[in-house]
C-alpha cells in the first residue's frame, strides 16, 4: 500500500462529506465503544489487569533478545523453522520462496496486520500466487480492492448495502439483503478455497517463549482452518509479539477481547505448536515462522519504546473523536487512529506522515482506554516536536507559534493581546454568539461554527477570584 498520509487533511475532508461512511462510523459508538465500557465495568480487577499487562510487556521489551532466542529454540525443538526478516522486502521474499517450495498456486490467509504492513498480497499476486483472505472483513475489502480501515473490523467503513452490492457483483446470483445470508454466502465461497489451498498464512496475536507456541484469536474460526488444512503453514509476526509464559499470554488475552469488542473472550482462541506430529489427526506437515523487525529494534530504548506494548485491540480508535469523524482510510496507511499516528511516522518516515501526529484533539481518551496504558498523546507530542524541528509544519504555523511564544513570555503584553482578541471575537460573534468564519482558524470554521468567548478571560477571572478571597 502506497502511503498517502501526507494528504490526511484532504482525505479527512472527503470522509466528512461522505454520508455513507458517516453512517457506518456511527455504529462504532453504539457497538464496540459501549461494549468495551460494559465489559470493563463487569470485571472488578480490570484496572489491576491493565497494570499487569503493561508490566508484562515492559519486562519483555527489557529482555527482548533473550526471549526471542528462547522462543526460536522451542519452535525448532517442536519441528518448526524460524526465518528472520530485517525489513518488509526480506519478509516478502521469504514468504514467496516458501510458497514456491510448496509449489503453491493458491494460499489462504487469515487476518494479519503484518501482512498488510509488508504489502504481502500484491507481492504474491505479482508472482503468480493467488492469496485468498478468509476473515470476512478482509474478504470484503479484498473484493472491493481497498485497504483495511480498522485493526479489528477491516470493513467497518462499509454498510450492509455496499457489501450486498459487492457480493452480487462478484458472486452473481440473487442479490442478498440480510446480514446472515451474506455471511452464509461468504462461507459457501470460502469453504472450497480452504480445501484448495496449498499454503495457509496467518499472523499471530502472541508468541509464547515458554513453549514455542503461536496464539491466534478470531470470531470466525478462519485462522484454525487456514493453519490446519494446507500442507504448509506460514506464520508472519513481528518481534514484539513475544510473551514469556502461557499464563502471561492469557492475562493479555483477558484484556484483548474486552478492549476490542467487549467480549470476555473471543469465540476462537487457538494455541498451535509446531507442525503435525505422528500421533496428531490433522495439521500442517511444515510450520514456518517469519519474524519481522522492520525498524522495531530501533524503537527499543528510544522515546517510542512504549508503543511496542500495543496488542492491536483497536480501543484507541474506537474512542478517538478524530477517527470516528474521518475513518481509517484518511490516515493513508496500514495503521490508523491514535496508534497509527505514532506508528506510521516510524515506518514510513515523519516527512511522509507529518500530518498524523496533529490528527488528535489530545483529549486523552486513547490513553484512558488502552489496555496496556500506552501514553499515546505523549508519543504524538514527540512526533510534533520532531516535525517542528525539521520545519515540516506550514510556514504560517511556525510563525504563528513563534509569535505566540513571544507574546506568552511577556505577561502584560499577553493580557493586553488576549483581552483585545476576546473583545474582537465577541463583536464577530454578534447576537448568535458564534462565528462562521475566523481569520487563521479556517480548519475549525470550515466544518463548524466557532463559539464566541463569553465572560472575562481566564486571567481576569483568576485575578477577581484571588481578590475576593483575600
From TrEMBL:
PROSITE patterns, per the entry: 4FE4S_FER_1, 4FE4S_FER_2
4Fe-4S ferredoxin-type domain boundaries: 301-330
Top-level taxon in the UniProt lineage: Bacteria
GO BP annotations, alphabetical order: lactate metabolic process
GO MF annotation: an example: 4 iron, 4 sulfur cluster binding
Keyword annotations: 4Fe-4S, Electron transport, Iron, Iron-sulfur, Metal-binding, Repeat, Transport
Listed name of the protein: LutB/LldF family L-lactate oxidation iron-sulfur protein
Lineage: Bacteria, Pseudomonadati, Pseudomonadota, Alphaproteobacteria, Geminicoccales
